[in-house]
Each structure stands twice: as C-alpha cells, then as structure tokens.
Amino acid sequence: MVKLDDLIALALAAGHEIMAVREAGFETLKKGDGSPVTIADQRAEALIEAGLAKLMPGVPMLGEESVEAGRIPELGERFFCVDPLDGTRGFAKGGNNFTVNIALVEGGAPSVGVIYAPARGELYAGEPGRALRGHAEHGALGALAPMRVSPPAAPWRIVASDHSGRDDKTKRFIAALAGTTAHASSSIKFCRLAEGEADLYPRFGEVCEWDAAAGHAILNAAGGGIMRLDGAPLRYGAVEDGFLIRGFVAFAGDAAKAAALGALG
User: Which of 6, 20, 39, 211 could cross-link 207 (Cys pair, CB 3.0–4.6 Å)?
Assistant: First the structure.
C-alpha cells in the first residue's frame, strides 16, 4: 500500500515544477478537443509518473496527458489516476486556482488522494479513516490538521464550478434546495466540502475521471462522498466510456446526499 506521505511529497514536487514553468514563461497550446495544455502539464505528469513507478512498481497510471498522447494502460484492480494540472485554463491566464491531483484507485473506488494548489499553498489529503489539510510555503509543508465534513445547517451551502456551474440545470438544483451558492475552480471544490465549508457540489456536465478521483478519496476520508446523478455509486476505470463521468453530486454526509436526491427528483 502506498503511503499518504509519499503521495504528498510527490504532489509538492509536481507543484514546484509547475511554478518553475510559470516563472520561466510558457506557451499555451490546444489539445485535439480544444482544451488548453502547457509544458507545465506535461512536465508535472512526467515527474509524477516516474515517482509513482518507484513507489508502486507495476501499478499503472491513468494520466490526463498520457491519455491525450494515446498511452492508455491496461488497468487492473489497482491504478493511479492523475491530473497533473487541474485548472490549466486559469493557470494559462495567470490565475492561482489550479491544482495537482493524485489518487490511488482500488476496486473501482478511490482510496487515497492528494490535492495541492501550489500558487495558494493549500494541500488536502485523505486515506481511509484520515483526512488532512495543511499549508506549504515555498514547497515546505507545515503541520497537517485533521478535517471533517460539517453537520447540515440551513440554508444548504452549494459550491459550483466557475466555468460550467452557471448553467440552467445547476440553477434549478440550487433553487430546489433554496441554497446559497459560491463558485470555485479546479478540484478545490471537493476540498471545500471536506473541510466543512460547503455541503454540496453538483456537476451536470461531463468530466474525466482524473478530474474527480483525488477529491473523491479526500471527501470519502472526511465523511462525505460522491454519487452519479441517478444516485448510483461513482466508479472509476471505465475505459469503454472514455473515462468520462457524465455528471455527479458530491455531498458532505448522508443528510446532504438525501437532500440532493430529492432535488434531482
């Protein structure tokens, strides 16, 4: 079993690489689907892939950039799911709300995860029975503190995507719950639930598995979870579906899950 501390160290190293690219300057390119990519995405993923190969030899890695390049590994019972730079669009514009996401998936469910926002210094991590958060200054991580989802309180606190969370389906979901709304970028939205700052995060558009796996592991560890829009558990490794997740709701505990199911109707 991989140690959480080792994945944290790897996320910090990838974050350092990303910030070095930002300082040196970079060009933003477009992938085949029109989404942006930079040398920071590619260098961070290469660093993570090499590090994971040393930590757990033989365990495959499903990475955003390697999939884009056509390198899709044969996934077994265990695999790593990595987004080396979640929030490339904001990174390319000079924003700070981008993250490094690393998760270990076992039996179709994420079990260990790390999310690091290098420009903000925020780090979140989780494994079964333990969810942690901390702050890093110049890549040096301070003390980690435990975190837990909050008990429900009216009104429901809903966090949505800055880029895609202003659509009609999201608005109807929020209205059905009479909730208050905040918007955020990248995988930090999952962390807001895990640390008790929000109750629900709905996503009605398609996302890739590497966008959610690390946040899912952390949220599970903090007492929450994620379900598909029909209430079914969210599973990973769907190669036949192009590793796409066709909508989900992240929830901070059973009461929030029940409220979401009611709003989804």
Answer: 211
Class of domain 4-146: alpha beta
Question: Nearest to residue 215, comparing CAs of 119, 49, 83?
Answer: 83
Q: Quick check: 121 pLDDT over 90?
A: yes
Nearest by Cα to 228 from 78, 209, 4 = 209
Contacts of 134 (CB under 8 A, 6+ apart): 123, 141, 142, 143, 144, 145
Answer whether residue 148 shows pLDDT above 90: yes
Place of tokens 């036949």: 240
Cα–Cα nearest to 184, from 151, 210, 223, 158: 158
* Residue 122 clears pLDDT 90, i.e. is over it: yes
Helices 4-24 & 39-55 angle (0-180, nearest 10) = 160
In this predicted structure, what is the pLDDT of residue 175?
95
pTM of the entire predicted model = 0.96
Q: Which CATH number fits domain 157-264: 3.30.70.260, 3.40.190.80, 2.60.120.10, 3.90.870.40?
A: 3.40.190.80
